[in-house]
Amino acid sequence: MDKRGHQYKTLASHVLGNILQGHQAGQGKLQRRHEKLEEKQEREAIKRYRAKSQLEKQPEITEICRR
User: Fold this and answer.
1) Distance (Å, rounded) from C-alpha 35 to C-alpha 9?
2) What does the domain layout of the chain look like in residue ranges?
3) Angle at 46 between CA 44 and CA 52, to 5 degrees
4) How far apart are CA 11 and CA 16, in angstroms?
5) Mapping DSSP to helix (H, G, I), strand (E, B) and coil, where does residue 20 land?
6) Which of 8-12, 14-18, 39-43, 54-58 has the highest mean pLDDT?
7) What pTM value is reported for the model?
8) Residue 49 CA: distances (Å) to CA of 34, 44, 45
9) Which element (helix H / strand E) includes 2?
10) Biggest CA pair distance of the chain
11) Between vectors from CA 2 to CA 5 and to CA 20, what angle results, nearest 5°?
12) Which end of the chain is more exposed for a tag (fewer CB within 10 A), N or C?
């Protein structure tokens, strides 16, 4: 293989390496975004549960809300 062919081959491998690296970084970013969304949904569910249990403990508030 001549020198120019070798240069193209190494350039191509570097380009492919960068593309794969970028894809993996993108996947990690998506994974973190998904985990954050799940955590947010869990926190909201806990808030709803706590609010509901507070209302059950205080029936007079529930009566006022129903009117």
Assistant:
1) 39
2) 3-66
3) 105
4) 9
5) helix
6) 39-43
7) 0.52
8) 23, 9, 6
9) none
10) 88
11) 25
12) C
Higher pLDDT, 45 or 4: 45
pLDDT above 70: residue 5: yes
Token digits for 29? 């970013």
- Looking at the chain, list the stretches that DSSP marks H as alpha helix, in order from N- to C-terminal side: 3-57, 59-66
Q: Cα 2 from chain centroid?
A: 47
Spell out the residues 6+ positions from residue 9 whose beta carbon is closer than 8 angstroms to its own.
1
Q: Whole-angstrom Cα distance, residue 33 to residue 31?
A: 5
pLDDT in tens, 29-62: 889 999 999 999 999 999 999 988 887 777 676 6
